[in-house]
Structures are given as structure tokens and as C-alpha cells.
Amino acid sequence: MKRTAFFVSDSTGITAETLGRSLLTQFDDIEVKTVSVPFVAQPELARELVERVAQVAAEDGARPIVFSTLTDQGIYEIVAASEALVLDLFSVFIRPLEIEFNLGSTHASGRSHGMANRASYEVRMEAVSFALQHDDGASTRHYNDADLIMVGVSRSGKTPTCVYLAMQFGLRAANYPMTEDDISRPGLPHAVAPYTDKLFGLSIDPERLRQVRGERQPNSRYASLSQCRKEVKECEALLRREGVPLLDTTNLSVEEIASRILLKTGIERRLR
Amino acid sequence: MKRTAFFVSDSTGITAETLGRSLLTQFDDIEVKTVSVPFVAQPELARELVERVAQVAAEDGARPIVFSTLTDQGIYEIVAASEALVLDLFSVFIRPLEIEFNLGSTHASGRSHGMANRASYEVRMEAVSFALQHDDGASTRHYNDADLIMVGVSRSGKTPTCVYLAMQFGLRAANYPMTEDDISRPGLPHAVAPYTDKLFGLSIDPERLRQVRGERQPNSRYASLSQCRKEVKECEALLRREGVPLLDTTNLSVEEIASRILLKTGIERRLR
Predict the structure, then answer these.
(1) Of the candidates B66, B101, B136, which is a domain's last residue?
(2) Is the ipTM of this complex over 0.90?
(3) pTM, whole model, 2 decimals?
(4) Packing angle between helix B14-24 and helix A14-24, nearest 10 degrees?
(5) CB-CB neighbors (< 8 A) of A97 in chain B
(6) Out of A101, A174, B215, B257, which residue is the most buried by the measure of CB atoms under 10 Å away?
């Protein structure tokens, strides 16, 4: 069975897409082609979409699904009259909130992923810039300004986690790779030792590490299982000894790693 | 009026948070404190949440809002019996989809932001790594593998856009800064000239550029309005002459920039 789902919005469509994809993951045994249709802010664009829906319905032999976050009532009604099953985030949830708050909603578009709040947007962008400047131990000068300093062996997941923490939560996360030298010495490396309260350790299963490193440098000592085992074991021991919290990233996505770090450390996100 | 909203999930809570924040942006004149409660996967954690909700309700003098994506029926029922207004994404939308697909849903948790699909996760992580390696012209060796090469003057928004395109869509985006030398010469810089079909230009209002640069290097020639005006004007002229698409990023968030680039170029995201 083949189906098409449209994510439709008068702005970026990120909310419709996040919602729609989450819902679709709940269904196995169905192949759904997804199409993002952002910036549907004029009636003509809504009418074009209705035509496209009809065409896809004919091709698929089944009606498409539309996940909508359209805020404009007139445009929404054009889309609602299409052949699709239209699941509208706003009509379902906005009304109970209006009643609860005893307030009308604004029906303004582009509020959630636009520039409605420039101050918090700039916090995020600064954090992304911080993550890049302090990636892989590149600079250790501004560790004072870091919310968090991730430590771990090479390829344990530090970099994408730092970038995600910045983009999603506005947190300034640096990362410092624990080299062979670092883990063979007693005590924490000089660069991070003054910041024990900001340190967070990432670890990974040596077999998985071997695989990840092997994709970069096949048949190298760096990617050998014995080397991966040794580094992981020594690095974990060092971090435990120094009281640095540790998370095994082997089966976790960056989203899961980031959520767990916040939960474990109690660090407050800088956005809202 | 003060209110508290909880984003509750048995996994990362990203979907509940995205949905909840989008809905809350529709209400002005109300101050909402938000609290993320991820990984509510055991009944005890659900009961703790119910207690917390009661406490917050007493403090606020108004019932909290719970945005939920709980997939386990038993855990959901514990939370649904709390004092909060519970808005549940799953109970509202899953049922119509089950009818539409004539299929039961899996009620599995952690599907949307976890490791359910390792292949597409790795595409994203590779793309993040690509963006960092090819940031700010750092390396131009693998431009062949890029989906997109962003060009523009320093601080026009290239870096965060590349990182976002990688994280969200799995696209490999490099970025190349157009220096004074580059824009004073006729033709595109040698490093990017062979890849005209991959180039995308970002521009920015000179006044805004002056402000952004001034935060980095106050009172510098680099941040002077005359310098910003000159660079923006010459860079725009060069890119127009060379037929490179251009987007003004002055009032756009990275999410909006990324969505518009995809819409304008027709580049397909690499995820799903």
C-alpha cells in the first residue's frame, strides 16, 4: 500500500513536519512518501496544493494525508476542501487553549521558527558559533563561558551533541577529545581540569567505536579493536575516578543524548 | 496571569515540545513557564509528574497545561487523571490515521527522535561532520561531494545555515566566505568556480551586517558601515552576474533560510 503525506504550513512547516513524522512512525507496514509544502500564505498556493493533492490521489489510488499548521482560516478552508484526509494541528488544539486561557489566539503565522523573538534567536546563533570555535579542543580559551564541556575519546559523539545542544537549546557546549596521552596520565588534562563542574563524559561500546573509526581510517591502528578497547576502558576509568558524569552513546541519537544530559545535569536551557 | 506548561513524553519529548511551543506562540498576553519532562516510561515517573502538576497548580493558582506524546496507554491514563489540561497529540491524531490506513498503530516510543532508523541517522551525522570540515572555506577539497555550497560575505549567515541543513535534512553543505579579494576580481573565486550549479548566495542588509560584525570586532574597519555597504554591494553584483541564486537573510531565521533554499533550488533532502 502506497500513500503520500503532505506537511503544509504558511511558514517553514517544521512543526507540521515534526508532528506528522512522529505520527507516521507509529505505523509499520505502510510506505508513506512525504512532501513538504512550506510558505502556503496565498490562496493561489493553497489552490495549487489542492490540485496537486488530487493528482497524487489519482496516482496513488488512495487519498493523501495532509498535516497542516495553517493559521489563516481562509487558506485552511481551501485546503480542507481537498481530497486529502486533513489533520489540522491548529483547529484541534487552539480552541481548548483559547477556552483555557480565556483569550483569543492571534492566528499569526511564522511565530515558532521565525524571528518573532530576535533575542533568543541570537542566543542560539551565538551558541552554534561557540560550539564550532570550541570543537575538538580547537580553542580552550573561553571554557569559562561554556555551559558544558564534553569529554570523551575520538568519535564518541561529542561534536554533533554540542552542535545540537546549541541549535536546539542555545547552550554553549565545548568539546575536548581525550587523546592517548591524556588518558595515560593521572588526573584530568590541564585544559579541562579547572572546569570539573562543567565536564560531561561520553562513552561508547568499543565494537561500535571500531566500526565508526574504521569508516574514516580503515585498517589503521586508530580503528583497531584492541586500541578502541584500551582507550574506552582507560578513559572511562579516568572520568569515573574524577567524578565526571558518563553517558554511553552507543544506541542513542543526538536528541536522546542531549535530553539525557539536561536531565542528568539539571542544566537549564537558555531558550525560554 | 501566570501558567505552567509541561512537555511530557516517554522519549526525548522533542515532538511534544515543538507542538506545544508552536501552539503557545499563538497566545499573546500570557506568560507561560515551560518545563520539559522527557523519558516518562515508568508508572512511578508518571505519578511523580502528577504530584508535580498538583504542586504547580497550587503555586500558580491556575491549572497547568500538559502537552503529551505518551504512547503507552497505562502511563497516559495516569497523567490524564492529573489536575492539568492534558492535550494529547497521540490520542487525537492516531485514531483517524488507524481508520484511514486500516491498520493498528504500534504505540512504540522513541521512534521519531531515536535510533529507529540507523541509516538515516548516519546520513545526518556525516552531514554535520561535512559542514564542520567545510566551514568558512576551511577545506575546499571535497566540494564534489557537497549538495550545496553557500557563498556570501563574512557574517551573512552561512555557517548556522549549513549546520541546520545537515542536522535537519542530512544535506552536505559547505560554505565559502567571499573575501574582499574575491569580490574585487572578475569572475567567481577559483575554489568555487567549477561548482556553479551547487552555489547559493546569502546576502544581508548592510546596516544589520554592521551590527553583527560590530559585536565581534567593535570599531573596526571590518564592521564599519561603509565597508559593509561596499562588500554587500560588490558581492551581490558578482553573484548576480554569475547567475548564482541569492537570498536576503536579514529578517530570516536559519529555519526559514533553509526552507527557502530547498524550495528555491528543488534540492531533495537526504532524509526519508
Answers:
(1) B101
(2) no
(3) 0.88
(4) 140
(5) 23, 26-27, 65, 87
(6) A174
